[in-house]
Amino acid sequence: MPYLHILRSPFVTRLLLGSWVGRLPPAMAALAIPLALRDAGASYDFVGAAAGAFAIASAVGSPLLGRLVDRIGQTSVLAATAVLSGAGFAAIALAPGRHAIVLAGAVLAGAATPPIEPCLRALWPDLVPARNLESAYALDSSAQELIFVTGPLVVAACIAVASPTSVLWAEALLGVVGVLVVATAAPSRRWRAEARSTHWLGPLRSPGLAILLAGMIGMGFAIGTLNILAVHYAENRHIWGGSPTLLALNSAGALIGALVYGAMKWTLPAPRRALAFAAGLVVGYTLLILLPAPPYMVPLMLATGMFLAPLLTVAFTLVGELAPPGTTTEAFAWLVTLFATGTSLGSAATGAVLQGADEHWAASCGALGVATTLLIVLAGQRKLAAAPVAQPHRPPVADAA
């Protein structure tokens, strides 16, 4: 099993655990901020505005922080953002009834979300041999699925023991702890990006990478659809545990898919693999339009997850291959941002459809999202297989002088 070899490599277990802890706060924020504000008596309008401010600030800040990491390294950026993001959560916890402070705290916490996820993915080529790189990305993807399960559980535990406000303090603490574990590790401290050009587009000037990232929006859109659809489905049918059970099944399927994918040796080129897994997602989400009875919904939720994680793992591989020199962290940050943007759009669209149409039409939103991904990946096969944009020739300093 390649996973045993990967976990035995120096610093891998430490970095995986540290990044897992450090990635919990953003996963918890979608629940923590609304719950804390409602506990303080805030209206739903303001709750939505605060949650939206956090999400938008995070989406905007992630690529900018990724570019900063590529320029000056990981340690200082991770440390500074952990403190700033923690301060944002603390501001909301200290004054949940003061709208201006809450909004400022939400923007700060979101914009300064430590880029621990793209930082770890930029480190993988230095941590494991090239033959194990895809397995490492699969392990990373598996950890991400565990975050989606663990985050809500941590929120529930904090509320059971203390109060909704305590979740915000827990987020600040977890962010600092996770970053300390990662940023003080030798691979993170010594990591430096390759020399890069100053092109304002950064990694987006790579046509293949731009195509891949566009496809991620469709995948995120489908996940956003599923989040809302699961709630509506569970409200109208008897499901043990309700919508969390359905989403947990989907995450479990993704975890299984990632582990199986990473344990196999693939000869099919990465762009073709992406196409195959995208096609599998289209089949799964098309069947989801039928919204079958609960006994049939269980395997369907597992199946849709099983295709999702391998497709994400292939995407990680392609990002590493297609990003121009010196832009890897920013490229991974763009992947996070565009996937999250797609998720927000999918949730909003599905909610709007459910207000005025049948739930089967709402389910078709997910199929539309993954079909869009499939078409983009299909149309971009040649670009996805191309080499990254070359670094422009720069004469030696002595010659230039």
Automatic annotation (TrEMBL):
Taxonomy, superkingdom: Bacteria
Keyword Repeat: no
GO molecular function: transmembrane transporter activity
Pfam families, sorted: MFS_1
Residue ranges crossing the lipid bilayer per the database entry: 12-37, 43-65, 77-95, 145-162, 168-188, 209-233, 239-262, 274-291, 297-319, 331-354, 360-379
Topology with respect to the bilayer: Multi-pass membrane protein
GO cellular component assignments: plasma membrane
InterPro entries listed in its UniProt record: MFS, MFS_dom, MFS_trans_sf
Keywords for this protein: Membrane, Transmembrane, Transmembrane helix
Protein name: MFS transporter
Source organism (scientific name): Streptomyces sulfonofaciens
